Task: inverse folding
């Protein structure tokens, strides 16, 4: 019965930590050098995998969607379908999932190791608040950098999709991009970046919370990192469903 209680306790701790972060963002101390350090970790450190994943996904999506649309002689809508699906949904989700796997797991492992080696207790003895010192810089960094990474992901994915459309379906670059522009408005891009902001907060808060609640030794640190990634993915997809309904309206 230990695992269910531990899992429930971690969710409770995560909710409590989220409230603490919201309050202390306005009242607590901000360690600017720690924020900049974590921005480098969450931004440039995750850029290459984000670009590789979203670039390949843009190619795959365009290739498969083009096959489907060609059966109905609707290839002129390929760019629009790309804009609706990839730019609205796939780019922010894939970016956040890569960040969760690379950055969120590192947060959980690093803070978890500090917990089991009593370094967090030492911070408290030195009158340094662990939430202000460890959690808030990571949360700010992810909330800021995941939308920026999403912009890069959109750019690379759009370029990759355009290349596939030109190479395999003989659609000109201008026609493809005009179709994307016709279906994708500036408001959609803003909504995509807002989603990325929320996903960045999820990545950071889950990773930090699972790290802070780690108990035991090296094995438990590894388990915390793994479960933090899986939990972040679940929350990202669940929140995307809710945000899509709120931002884009009921499809019926």
Result:
């Amino acid at each position: 019965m230990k695992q269910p209680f531990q899992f429930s306790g971690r969710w409770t701790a995560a909710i409590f930590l989220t409230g603490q972060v919201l309050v202390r963002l306005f009242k607590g101390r901000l360690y600017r050098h720690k924020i900049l350090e974590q921005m480098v970790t969450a931004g440039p450190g995750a850029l290459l995998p984000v670009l590789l994943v979203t670039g390949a996904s843009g190619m795959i999506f365009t290739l498969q969607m083009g096959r489907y649309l060609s059966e109905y002689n609707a290839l002129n809508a390929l760019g629009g379908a790309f804009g609706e699906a990839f730019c609205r949904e796939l780019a922010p989700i894939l970016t956040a999932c890569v960040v969760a796997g690379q950055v969120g797991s590192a947060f959980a492992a690093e803070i978890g190791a500090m917990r089991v080696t009593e370094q967090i207790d030492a911070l408290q003895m030195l009158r340094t608040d662990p939430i202000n010192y460890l959690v808030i810089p990571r949360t700010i960094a992810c909330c800021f950098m995941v939308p920026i990474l999403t912009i890069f992901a959109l750019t690379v994915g759009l370029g990759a999709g355009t290349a596939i459309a030109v190479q395999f379906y003989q659609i000109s670059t201008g026609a493809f991009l005009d179709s994307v522009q016709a279906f994708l408005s500036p408001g959609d891009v803003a909504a995509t970046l807002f989603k990325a902001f929320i996903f960045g907060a999820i990545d950071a808060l889950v990773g930090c919370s699972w790290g802070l609640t780690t108990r035991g030794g090296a094995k438990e640190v590894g388990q915390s990192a793994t479960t933090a990634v899986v939990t972040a993915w679940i929350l990202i997809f669940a929140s995307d469903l809710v945000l899509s309904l709120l931002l884009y309206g009921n499809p019926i």
Summary: Residues 1-5 have pLDDT under 50 and may be disordered. Residues 31-246 form one domain.
